[in-house]
Specification:
Four copies of one chain form a homotetramer.
Chain A (H helix, E strand, L loop, with lengths): L1 E3 L4 E3 L3 H26 L4 H36 L4 H13 L2
Antiparallel strand pairs in A: 1-2
Helix pairs in contact in A: 1-2, 2-3
């Protein structure tokens, strides 16, 4: 359920989506700390780059999960309520994600 | 200066490179925690996706700094020492980074 | 207006969108022929790679135009008609575009 | 073998590399013409986007082949001849390819 607070829209997510997103971010945070540890242990460049590629992949999959949820809930609801500006909003973020 | 420990090569970085890489990772870690906070505060999907795009950009620039240092030190030294397998190693990681 | 032929859906585009898409593809086709010419004239590698990056950017912008049109016409219409599988279809293609 | 013509470096490629690169570009050119045909036949948006994703993948693999050849010939030779600016040149193009 989406509410418009003073300046930003918010979105109440169901517990399952909430838990999944937090779990993914916790893992990514751990991976970043792991890479810091590699630098601290003088790890070799290509080994570090391999780990960073894994973090980028994890972020990309986080994006896809969030985007799919957004489209199946907010975008569908907005379109049914005639708020078609939701498509412009979606396109704006896709411009960034489709580098 | 690069040493081959039992199974993994290591690389002693100069203090400036070391500090820059750690600083970048600390900032990325902070950004990830910030996104977790957004989820906890029921932030709207596209606002979260915008922040994740910023983290991906920060990771990409971390990669470029590390890659440039790697090429200007390890790859140049290896080629001068006739260890041309360094190019295969570099190409392997570029395959991942050039999705 | 979208019709379902025997196995594939088709889409009648308005003349303006049609002309723009064809114009973009003609230009991309010309760029590819230009790169072939560079190879034939023994052009240097990085000069060629620079041109290929320009083609990738042109393809990416072609995708964004097509995607925006698709969302503002087919996806909005389908959702209003209760055909929410259009979102799964959109997500499937976004998975490919969001490498 | 690389010569510096008046303003641009050129590179004489071995017949095998030359044939492979031209073959790849011919195929990509054909794919672009195929996509034009899809637009002319009012093909559905997501079917077109799927084909464009295939062209992007083909361009990406063309880049990797060209880059690997470049590194194993021009970059190795330049470094052995003490022309280390070749690394800056390589990094400049990687910045574009590592969007």
């Amino acid at each position: 359920m989406e509410e418009a607070c003073c300046c930003h829209k918010t979105k109440k997510r169901d517990p399952e989506e909430y838990k999944d997103l937090i779990h993914r971010l916790n893992r990514i945070e751990g991976q970043i700390r792991g890479i810091k540890g590699m630098i601290e242990r003088d790890a070799y460049c290509t080994d570090i780059l391999t780990q960073v590629a894994a973090v980028s992949a994890a972020l990309n999959s986080f994006n896809k999960v969030l985007l799919e949820n957004h489209m199946k809930t907010c975008v569908v609801r907005d379109i049914k309520e005639g708020k078609e500006e939701t498509v412009d909003e979606l396109m704006k973020i896709l411009q960034k994600l489709m580098k």
